[in-house]
Amino acid sequence: MSAAPNLEAYWMPFTGNRYFKSHPRLLASASGMHFTTTTGEKILDGIAGLWCCNAGHCHPKIVEAIQAQAAKLDYATAFQMGHPDIFALAEKVTAMAPGNLDYAFFTNSGSESVDTALKIAIAYHRTRGDAGRTRLIGREKGYHGVGFGGISVGGMSPNRKMYSAVLLPGVDHLPHTHNIEHNAFSRGQPQWGAHLADELENIVALHDASTIAAVIVEPVAGSAGVIIPPVGYLERLREICTKHGILLIFDEVITAFGRLGGAFGADVLGVQPDMITTAKGLTSGAIPMGAVLADKDIYQTFMTGPDKAIELFHGYTYSGHPMAAAAGLAAMSVYEEEGLFQRVRELAPVFEDAVHSLKDARHVIDTRNLGLMGAIELETRPGAPTVRAIEAFTGCFDAGLLVRTTGDTIALSPPLIIEESHIDQIVTTIRKVLESIE
Ligand SMILES: Cc1ncc(COP(=O)(O)O)c(C=O)c1O
């Protein structure tokens, strides 16, 4: 590939195309905690690529597994066929999952995992003779990818507004739990806000439980700016769902595979969902792959009728792709062998202190954290929402640090192999950049 490609033909996702193409930032290679740009700058990765490269970049074991699989089995259809590695990965991941999440349905992304889980929820109720349960409940500020299902239950208005007339019908939303007035500068789970889960009772009263299939929430909302669940909030949602026969889906596309210091956010937060959606860390970001983990009762509900019949009319050409399966198995081995989830638990207090050290930095109105997720929220520049954060993003990049911004919040989610010296570098850089921007 040429070092200076023509940038025009590529319509870039979630990007200001015109600004990017006049101010390109091109990555050429990566290793461990760093990217290297096409012009040779070394960039510390403060967000694990996009919340996904949990084992760090180009981990030799993952690279080797992908290379070997590419030469051995390039493709195997998942429809009425299989290959050994995908069964091994399903066994591995479900063994790591809490409770009876004993079955894995493979997809290629978080968005596909979400749409798959929503479809399974509706089909599950219908299969067990409760066909009226079709309503789906999401949450304001939720991000569940970009499929029609995901944007319908999602709660980020820029992602929805173009499509408002064609979103899924019968969807309602819980209120979000972000509240700076009550919870600013909370360390870990904030104390205020468990009662916001009770709004589910009002939604049930409005629509009747017999119309509701599932509630879907991120245990920690990532893309909206790292919104940590208040103490007792998820427990309350679980209670209300159980009371009314509603499935609870945790969207753990970000929080699974170590981000919070355990295999799943559900373990760390001590609340058992009926399904978990994953992607990202499932292969440490190296090959696209997602999975829905379903409770055994859900799976068994479908296992009726003639045994040669297809039980669920759903799947993707690339479900369980051999290269993704190899990457997933290698990622799970790396997490285990290198004790990366344990490492997160050990580093979390250091990371927490570092994130909160920015409390008195210029423009900062909130800092928050859980596991290796952190956020620094900036005061919005009057009349120019998001601009200050975008300037912080470009300032950090120019200073050799990749962060993510959403609204006026800087989000951090570094690879789980991060060292204390990198954590220092992250907060020192952010402080300096914030000092330099208006
Ligand atoms: C919670 C959550 N769900 C779904 C998605 C969508 O994943 P993908 O971009 O792989 O489709 C994301 C992506 O960030 C996410 O954070």
Can you give a write-up of this model?
The protein is an alpha/beta fold and 438 residues long. It folds into two domains: 17-55 and 339-436, Alpha-Beta Complex (Aspartate Aminotransferase, domain 1); 64-337, Aspartate Aminotransferase, domain 2 (3-Layer(aba) Sandwich). The protein has helices at 17-22, 48-51, 60-72, 84-96, 110-127, 148-153, 157-160, 180-183, 199-207, 233-243, 265-269, 296-302, 322-337, 340-356, 387-398, 420-436, and strands spanning 27-31, 34-37, 42-45, 103-107, 135-139, 171-174, 212-217, 247-251, 275-278, 290-294, 364-370, 373-378, 401-402, 404-406, 409-412. A hairpin with a 2-residue loop joins strand 14 and strand 15 (409-412). The structure holds pyridoxal-5'-phosphate (PLP). Residues 109-111, 114, 143-145, 218, 222-223, 251, 253-254, 279 line the site of pyridoxal-5'-phosphate (PLP).
Reported for the largest beta sheet, the result is: 7 strands, mixed
Mean of residue pLDDT? 97
What general form does the structure show? globular
User: How many structural domains are formed by the residues?
Assistant: 2
Q: What fraction of the residues are assigned to beta strands by DSSP?
A: 15-25%
Category by helix and strand content:
alpha/beta
User: Considering DSSP H and I runs of 4 or more, what fraction of the residues is helical?
Assistant: 25-40%
End-to-end distance: 39 Å
- Fill in the CATH topology of the largest domain: Aspartate Aminotransferase, domain 2
Count of beta strands: 15
Question: Which CATH architecture of the largest domain is right?
Answer: 3-Layer(aba) Sandwich
Low-confidence stretches: none
CATH domain class name of the largest domain: Alpha Beta
**Largest sheet, spatial ordering of strands:** 4-10-9-8-7-5-6
* Rg: 21 Å
What is the H level of CATH, i.e. the homologous superfamily of the largest domain? Type I PLP-dependent aspartate aminotransferase-like (Major domain)
Count, helices: 16
